[in-house]
Specification:
mainly beta; Lipocalin; 4-stranded antiparallel sheet; 3 helices; 16 strands; 13% helix; WD40/YVTN_repeat-like_dom_sf; Quinoprotein_ADH-like_sf
C-alpha cells in the first residue's frame, strides 16, 4: 500500500516528563532572575526635567511655609522647623518661589517654571530666551500673581500669563519696539499689575503698562474666558465709568414734536 505523502512515516518524538519539567524550571528561574533587574532599570530612569520631590510628612488643612535652601525648595513647619517636603531638580537651582492658592510656583535658573502641590509636580513651562537675561537678572519680580488663578511671568521682552490650574498659556503681551519690561519694578495696585517699560524715546505714559488676569487694561476690552474647562466663568463687574441711563420722564418719552396725544377710548 503506497504511503500517504501528507502523513508522516514516524510519530513525533515525545519528551520524557523529566525533560519537560527541567525545561519549565529553567524558564521560571530565568524570569525570577530577570524581574529584579527590570525593576531596578525602571526605577533608575531619570525623572522628566530632573525632578525629585521627597515628601517627609503630610499635613492637611495647613498652608506650608516655604524657603529656598541651597539647591532645593522646602516646605516646613514654622513651629517645629520640620521639613514637610523637599523639591529639587538635577543640576538646577531655584531662583524664586511663590505660594498661591495652595500651589507652589518656582522659577529655576534654566528658565523653567514649575508647579507643585507637595505631592506631585503638576506642570512645567519654559520661559523663552531665558539664557539671554536670566543669569544676570536673578529672577527678581518675574513671577507675579494676577488673581483668579492666573500667573504672570514678566520677562524683558514679553509678559506671559498662565493658568495655575494646569499651566495653560492664556495670553502674551510683547514689549514695544525699542522698549523692555523691568520685572523688578512692577507694582501691584488693587487687581492691576503696573509694569515699568522704559523706552529711549517715548512719553512717560507709554513707559507704564497695566495688566490684570484678562490681559492689558484698555477701554472697552473684550472678555477672555480664563476659567479651567468645566468651570463656569464669573461675569465681569459693570464698568464704573459707564454712565447710568437717563430717567424716564415725560419729556424724555416725548417725540420730536412733543408728547403724543392720548387717544379717546370713551365708549359711545
Amino acid at each position: 500500500m503506497p504511503n500517504d505523502p501528507l502523513r508522516p512515516d514516524t510519530a513525533p518524538a515525545v519528551l520524557p516528563a523529566a525533560a519537560r519539567a527541567r525545561r519549565l524550571l529553567t524558564t521560571v528561574a530565568a524570569l525570577v532572575l530577570t524581574a529584579p533587574l527590570l525593576a531596578t532599570a525602571h526605577q533608575s530612569r531619570p525623572a522628566p526635567y530632573g525632578d525629585r520631590l521627597t515628601v517627609h510628612a503630610r499635613v492637611q488643612h495647613s498652608a506650608p511655609h516655604l524657603r529656598i535652601r541651597r539647591a532645593a525648595v522646602e516646605a516646613y513647619d514654622r513651629a517645629t522647623g520640620a521639613v514637610r517636603w523637599r523639591y529639587t531638580r538635577e543640576a538646577r537651582r531655584p531662583l524664586s518661589v511663590l505660594l498661591t492658592r495652595g500651589e507652589v510656583l518656582t522659577l529655576w535658573d534654566d528658565g523653567l517654571v514649575t508647579d507643585t502641590d507637595g505631592t506631585s509636580v503638576r506642570w512645567h513651562r519654559a520661559l523663552p530666551a531665558a539664557a539671554d537675561w536670566l543669569p544676570a537678572h536673578g529672577g527678581t519680580g518675574v513671577l507675579r500673581p494676577l488673581g483668579r488663578g492666573i500667573l504672570a511671568a514678566v520677562t524683558p521682552r514679553r509678559v506671559a500669563a498662565y493658568r495655575t490650574a494646569d499651566g495653560d498659556l492664556r495670553w502674551v503681551l510683547p514689549a514695544r519696539r525699542g522698549c523692555v519690561f523691568r520685572p523688578e519694578r512692577a507694582l501691584r495696585r488693587g487687581g492691576v499689575l503696573l509694569i515699568a517699560q522704559p523706552c529711549a524715546r517715548a512719553a512717560w505714559t507709554a513707559q507704564l503698562v497695566a495688566v490684570d488676569d484678562l490681559g492689558r487694561v484698555t477701554p472697552q476690552r473684550p472678555p477672555l474666558g480664563n476659567a479651567a474647562p468645566g468651570h463656569r466663568p464669573q461675569s465681569p463687574p459693570p464698568s464704573q465709568t459707564e454712565a447710568p441711563p437717563p430717567p424716564h420722564t415725560e419729556a424724555s418719552l416725548a417725540g420730536p414734536e412733543g408728547p403724543h396725544p392720548t387717544p379717546d377710548i370713551t365708549p359711545p
